[in-house]
Amino acid sequence: MRYQISGKQIDIGDALQTHVKAELGAAVQKYAGRPTDATVVFSKSGHEFVCEATVHLSTGLTASAKAHDTEIYAAFDGCCEKMEKQLRRYKRRLKDHHKERVEPVELLGASSYILASESDSDAQEPETLQPMIIAEMQTKIATLSVGEAVMQMELGGAPVLVFRKEGKEGLNVVYRREDGNIGWIDPA
């Protein structure tokens, strides 16, 4: 597994990097067979250290966790516990489905945009009706079953997930509804 361990305006020493590789590697290997890479970022927020970790698996799942504490090692340990809990739930759900994916998830390239929102409710009429694009980036759209898409959306903490349904051509969307249920859009 490839590790990318960095700090935002924090010096990350060799001892912390060794600790991260050992602990995160053990947690991921326990519940996931083929992790591809992990990204761990440490930062400081006020008097607390913040640890954000993202692990990509060969099945297409992206698990992420975030924790903060007054000590940097405690922040990582909290983040690692959350990651381990997510992966344990993921593995339990895979066993419940009694279905093993033989091949890795197929991914398609797509563009992702972040549009500026109108922050002032009393704002004047804009000069143009075109929204201002703040960020433009490339993303990948996975080919998943509906159950796998819901699982990936929940584990990633996302409110919406766009995916291709296995055996179909068009795009599908799963999203969290205001009543707490999951909605699924399957165009005909």
UniProtKB/TrEMBL annotation:
Q: Which GO terms describe its biological process?
A: negative regulation of translational elongation
Q: Where in the cell is it found?
A: Cytoplasm
- One Gene Ontology molecular-function label: ribosomal small subunit binding
| InterPro entries in UniProt | HPF/YfiA_ribosome-assoc, HPF_long/plastid, RHF-like, RHF/RaiA, Ribosom_S30AE_C, Ribosom_S30AE_C_sf
**What is one term from the GO cellular component aspect held by the record?**
cytosolic small ribosomal subunit
Instruction: Please give the superkingdom of this protein's source.
Output: Bacteria
* Keyword field: Cytoplasm, Translation regulation
User: Which residue range or ranges hold the Sigma 54 modulation/S30EA ribosomal protein C-terminal domain?
Assistant: 130-183
Q: Relate the protein's function as given in its record.
A: Required for dimerization of active 70S ribosomes into 100S ribosomes in stationary phase; 100S ribosomes are translationally inactive and sometimes present during exponential growth.
Oligomer and partners: Associates exclusively with 100S ribosomes, which are dimers of 70S ribosomes.
Which NCBIfam families does the entry mention? yfiA (TIGR00741)
Instruction: Give the family, as the similarity comment puts it.
Output: Belongs to the HPF/YfiA ribosome-associated protein family. Long HPF subfamily.
User: What protein am I looking at?
Assistant: Ribosome hibernation promoting factor
Per the UniProt entry, what species is this protein from, by scientific name?
A: Sulfitobacter aestuariivivens
